[in-house]
Amino acid sequence: MNFQKKILVTGGAGFIGSHVVRRLVNKYPNYLILNADKLTYAGNLENLIDVDYKENYEFIQLDITNERSVNELFEAHQFDGVIHLAAESHVDRSISNPGEFVMTNVVGTLNLLNSCRAQWNGNFNNKVFYHISTDEVYGSLGDTGLFYETTAYDPRSPYSASKASSDHLVRAYFHTYGMPIKISNCSNNYGANQFPEKLLPLMINNINENKPLPVYGKGENIRDWLWVEDHAIAIDLIFHEGVLGETYNIGGHNEWKNIDLIHLLCDIMDRKLNQAIGTASSLITYVTDRAGHDMRYAIDASKIYNELGWKPSVTFEKGLEITVDWYLNNKEWLSRVTSGAYQSYYKKQYKSE
Ligand code: NAD
Ligand code: DAU
To answer: Quick one: pLDDT at residue 340?
Structure first.
């Protein structure tokens, strides 16, 4: 089949990547979407079973830290665009193993930039290298203020430092070599298929299993939550309509203190599980705080609102309801991803039996 465009999506078997791949495969039958993913503990091809039979979808298992493999991929395929999501993404794991984050997030990004640059060889017409980043590069806010695209970088965890470093490299390739790049920095995503080491699926899983709900510190840290499908919509829009060399902040304008969010989730779970209100929240347990725990993230997303006409499509209440329903209807998915290695991760992270 002759495709109009060939797009490489890295990290497409992960949480956000799988939503991006599904959207692109379904919406653009004339694009070939090639998903390159190492399939770490966070990558799961089961996330894509509804599209993996489609003619315009291909998967290749690839470690982006392996320069030779990345070069070989680019020798085998001519890409019109790259949407780069592959990363080590969990702050807690970056605290115990920073080196892996530097390898994947920094060296892996460098390898992709180099292969792209060599393949496009100065002919950048209709080409895009789109790097997916995070609001964590901007650091930690006090009680007031927002992160703007112009906010100075101040990463404070090995994860955010590695993402900041990759953002700098991507921008450097724009300025130095004229590479056609775009970057977006998004706030906390929630939704289906998120690995249960992150706050919401971990809490849902623990409520299901009647296990303690580990709240770091006093639970007063604030995050700005966005439904993952709204992030995927924004990525599609920026890829097609964003201006080269530009950065776009993406956020839900939806700040929640962790403890308030956990109480809201507990109430929804009690209702869904037909148990007395207060049953789930009785599992809340305060545990040792995350080292260097950023206090507050909040995104100013007015640039993407005003320039590209994007805004979240669902309210938080609706998105959370859909999300809880997904996990309750997909308990087999949860139990498959929480068997094996997850158990030893959990015991080490939460010092539990
Ligand atoms: P995730 O951990 O769920 O998925 C990451 C994917 O990358 C996995 O499929 C994994 O197998 C793959 N991967 C890891 N190392 C690789 C390597 N060396 N080579 C090839 N593939 C590799 O992460 P996510 O939450 O879906 O995040 C995706 C991207 O979005 C990341 O770049 C992250 O920094 C960014 N981001 C995430 C959030 C969020 O709230 N989750 C918010 C803003 C930005
Ligand atoms: O802001 C965007 C970032 O959001 C992304 O770049 C990261 O990839 C993504 O993991 C996420 O980072 P956070 O550290 O904010 O997400 P996490 O789900 O790990 O934690 C959310 C908040 O909940 C944070 O304040 C820590 C707290 N927390 C987390 C866990 C796992 C707890 O209190 N208890 C927990 O068990």
So the answer is: 87
What is the C-alpha end-to-end distance of the chain, expressed in Å? 54
Task: Note the pLDDT of residue 228.
Answer: 98
* Domains identified in the chain, total number: 1
Strand 188-190 relative to strand 128-134: parallel, antiparallel, unpaired? Answer: unpaired
pLDDT of residue 353: 54
State the amino acid at position 352 in one-letter form: S
pTM > 0.85: yes or no: yes
Q: Choose the residue to mutate in 23, 40, 112, 239 for probing ligand 1, maximizing ligand atoms within 8 Å of C-beta.
A: 40
Nearest ligand 2 atom to the CA of 186 is 2
Q: Is 270 among the domain residues?
A: no
Q: Is 16 in the pocket of ligand 1 (CB under 6 A)?
A: yes
Q: How far apart are CA 16 and CA 136, in angstroms?
A: 16
State the CATH number of the domain containing residue 69. Answer: 3.40.50.720
DSSP 218: T
- Closest protein CA for atom 17 of ligand 1: 63
Q: Is residue 186 within 6 Å of ligand 1 at its C-beta?
A: yes
pLDDT value at 352 more than 80 = no
**Structural domain harbouring 233:** 5-190+226-250
